[in-house]
Amino acid sequence: MPKRSSSVVGREFGNGVRKIIERTGLTQRRVAELLGWHEAKISDLLAGKGGVDEAEVRELLAYCHATVEERRHLIALFLESGEKGWLQFPDDGVPDQVHTFIENEKNAKKITAWSLTLVPGVLQIPEYAHVVTEASPVIEAADVPAVAAARSARAKILNGDREFVFYVHEYALRLQVGGVEVWREQLAHLLRVSVRTYISIRVIPASIGIHAGTSGGFYLLEFHKFPTVVYLESLNCCLFFDDTETVEIYENTVKRLDAVALDEEESRAVIDSILEGF
């Protein structure tokens, strides 16, 4: 596989190999020496940049005594690292809880989210998240409390270490989720967090009609060292893109949303007017 920039699936592969190397007790330099490789080759592999072929990957995994299951999983990731997008089907059917998305979310320097129908996940209060989880057709009733709690825990990333921009359609704010008290508290929470300097909430007013975001919600994750990642999800799967062409399409979509969105003060006024309408 030719050497290239780091990709989402490449980093997933690299992280898996890193854990196997760490288990041997050997340093990356020593493993490289024993295989007759330059240390930079190991570094690029672990960073998800490629620079190795399948035979070399198999040699490395065999030397580090990876299990058969680990080899199958990592080889599959390696082979998929050259594809344009990466589709994941979570075992538990909960796309926004896949560790790949959560890790990328934690490492991003800027997160831009567009939500057409609901309050964005990390802005949801626990009670709202519980009702949303309960309504999912792929989550068993017995699993709702645990999944809802995990979703709420993602709000920990809302700190000044990164920048957040949330575009939310007016209808998502007017959709009553749970009882009136849950709905009111959710809107009040949006007002509280919207004054944080690192969080921008921009409302797309219903009055503009059709717009660039009608095809569905998405996340745009920007990093200090890695290419920007687009994240999409459906009921039971999620999709990552980091190729230039796809990223540009979604960056242009954000620009078009930005052009029709209300500014932060106007957006707060819309949220406040909905609250006053009770």
Task: Show the helix and strand layout.
Layout lengths: L7 H17 L3 H8 L3 H8 L7 H10 L4 H13 L4 E4 L10 H9 L2 E6 L10 H9 L9 H10 L9 E7 H5 L5 H14 L5 E6 L13 E5 L6 E5 L4 E4 L2 H17 L3 H13 L2
Return the CATH class of the largest domain.
Alpha Beta
The portion of residues assigned to helices is 40-55%
What strand line-up does the widest sheet have?
Answer: 1-7-6-5-2-3-4
The total of helices stands at 12
Strand residue percentage: 5-15%
Number of distinct beta strands:
7
Helix and strand run: HHHHHEHEHHEHHEEEEHH
Biggest sheet, open or closed, and with what strands and sense? Answer: 7 strands, mixed
State the end-to-end CA separation: 60 Å
Radius of gyration: 21 Å
- Could you name the CATH topology of the largest domain? Endonuclease, Chain A
Q: Could you say which overall geometry the principal axes of the C-alpha atoms support? A: elongated
Calculate the mean pLDDT score and round it: 91
CATH arch. level architecture of the largest domain? 2-Layer Sandwich
Protein name: Helix-turn-helix domain-containing protein
InterPro entries: Cro/C1-type_HTH, DUF5753, Lambda_DNA-bd_dom_sf
Organism: Lentzea indica
Domain HTH cro/C1-type: 17-71
